[in-house]
Structure formats: structure tokens, C-alpha cells
Design goal:
Length: 272
């Protein structure tokens, strides 16, 4: 994003931004006098070449992720009743790893275009046994993914560790669901704590993956973040495929009142 503005109390005050996502160029013009905004798409090859030349990582100071939360784009792969879904983010590469047989994991690999470190968002049949791997499990407190997810590291970690305060990069994050194991495997040295690795994008991708693994029990448990479930009973869970949102209708105890908790694909919730 390239900003340009003029602050003035007269009719020529304006602000404008050029947005470029490697594919589209948008000029957003905001008139401070009329308080109206207009958006123009620019198709001019020399300008696109110039913006492309400005996109080297060492020349970028700040990063903003723009995702349409009401209508996000996804990369997904489905085999039978198992679906791996990731929100599509500009400047990230995605590769489908298709199903081969029940002994081979499947899912989606992705990475930032500026790194060589791939992440594999996969599913394996059966439950992963950490002791059968070369990795070591550690208790991570405060993870945004929630309690069902477990963290594995290359080296043993003594005691609990707070989320994103681990002494080394995690190698795998996993949870059991749907008769198997969903997991994120760090194929290289990707570090979500480093701005030059993450650039505010990994968090959205991780949460969209975790959202797709939730079952009704997990959804009900997450409602406790947004309401005092002790005061409610008889939750009615429904899923909205078009928006990928979970809705839970709660009945207030000793009352005819109801409350609905909605969880969207990025694990944000709101109460109605």
C-alpha cells in the first residue's frame, strides 16, 4: 500500500492509497470535503512493473493483511469426508498434496513467496503417537488455537511455555479429530514470531485450518469465551456452509430468553 494525502480545511483536502497484491492495482480516493470514497482499478503495465520492482522484502517496513472477512477466498482439498481448508492470502504459494492411500498423509502445503520454508497442513489416518517421532511435546499455555492442539519441538522443553515465548520454533502442531490427526508440520525454519516470516498472514491461515477441524463439542466449548455458559443450557449447534460459520443457540436457564454465539473461520466470535 502506498499512501498519499493532503490535510486541509478547504475543498482540496484528500487522502489516497494505491493497493497492489501482485495481480490487481487499486486506487482508493477519499475526498475529505464531501467525505466520499471512490475506488478505481488501474490496468497500466509500466506501473505494475514499477510496483513489482518495489516489492523486495528488504524494502518493505510494514505489512497489512487485507482479507474480506465476509467473503474470503479459500484453497481446499477434500477426500471422502475429510476437508483441509486454508484461507487464500496474497503473496503466499499453495500446493495440493492429494490422497494416495490410507498410509499416506494428504493436505495442502503453503509458504510465503519470499521464503523457502514450507508448511504442511495435513491429515493422517489414526492418532499420532508423539513418542514414535523424533519430536518432544511441550505444554503451551495461551495458544490461540485452544486446548485440543498440542505442540511438538525438536528438543525437550522443561515445564510449561507461554504461546510465542517458546525457546525454539515449533516443529509440529496437531489435534485428534474425525478418526485421525490434523496437523501443521514446519518443513523448514519458519518462525511465526518473526515479522519478516509471518507478515501478519500466518495467523489467518492457521486459524482457518483449525476452524475446519472443529466438531460440535469443540464449538460448544469455545462458546465459554464469549458467554457464561453456566447460565445457559440445551445448546443447538448448526453450521452454515456458505460462510463456514458455526452458530450455537443457547437457552437461558429459568427463562425464555435465547442467545446465539457465532464463530467465524478465523476463530472470532460474536454474540447476538
Amino acid at each position: 500500500m502506498i499512501p498519499c494525502s493532503k490535510n486541509s480545511s478547504n475543498s482540496i483536502g484528500f487522502s489516497s492509497y494505491i493497493y497492489y497484491d501482485y495481480e490487481h492495482i487499486l486506487l482508493v480516493w477519499y475526498d475529505k470535503y464531501t467525505q466520499q470514497q471512490e475506488v478505481f482499478e488501474i490496468t497500466y503495465a509500466p506501473l505494475q512493473d514499477f510496483l513489482e520492482s518495489m516489492m523486495q522484502p528488504e524494502r518493505i517496513d510494514n505489512y497489512t493483511v487485507m482479507i474480506d472477512l465476509d467473503n474470503p477466498a479459500y484453497v481446499s482439498y477434500t477426500h471422502e469426508d475429510i476437508t483441509v481448508q486454508l484461507v487464500r492470502k496474497a503473496s503466499w504459494e499453495y500446493k495440493i498434496v492429494p490422497y494416495v492411500d490410507d498410509r499416506t498423509d494428504f493436505g495442502i502445503r503453503c509458504k510465503p513467496e519470499w521464503l523457502e520454508d514450507w508448511l504442511f497442513f495435513g491429515y493422517m489416518h489414526g492418532e499420532l503417537v508423539p513418542e514414535s517421532t523424533f519430536l518432544h511435546e511441550a505444554k503451551v499455555n495461551g495458544s490461540q488455537l485452544g486446548d485440543p492442539w498440542h505442540y511438538l519441538f525438536e528438543n525437550p522443553i522443561v515445564g510449561d511455555v507461554s504461546w510465542r515465548e517458546w525457546p525454539e520454533n515449533w516443529k509440529m502442531i496437531y489435534r485428534y479429530a474425525d478418526g485421525g490427526t490434523y496437523y501443521i508440520y514446519n518443513e523448514g525454519s519458519f518462525d511465526e514470531c518473526l515479522a519478516e516470516h509471518d507478515r501478519s498472514g500466518y495467523n489467518f491461515i492457521e486459524k482457518s485450518f483449525a476452524h475446519g477441524t472443529m466438531d460440535e463439542e469443540t464449538v460448544i466449548q469455545k462458546c465459554g469465551i464469549y458467554i457464561n455458559v453456566a447460565g445457559y443450557e440445551n445448546p443447538e449447534v448448526s453450521y452454515e456452509p456458505a460462510t463456514r460459520r458455526w452458530h450455537v443457540l443457547w437457552h437461558k436457564k429459568d427463562s425464555d430468553e435465547t442467545t446465539t454465539v457465532t464463530l467465524d473461520p478465523f476463530l472470532y466470535g460474536f454474540v447476538e
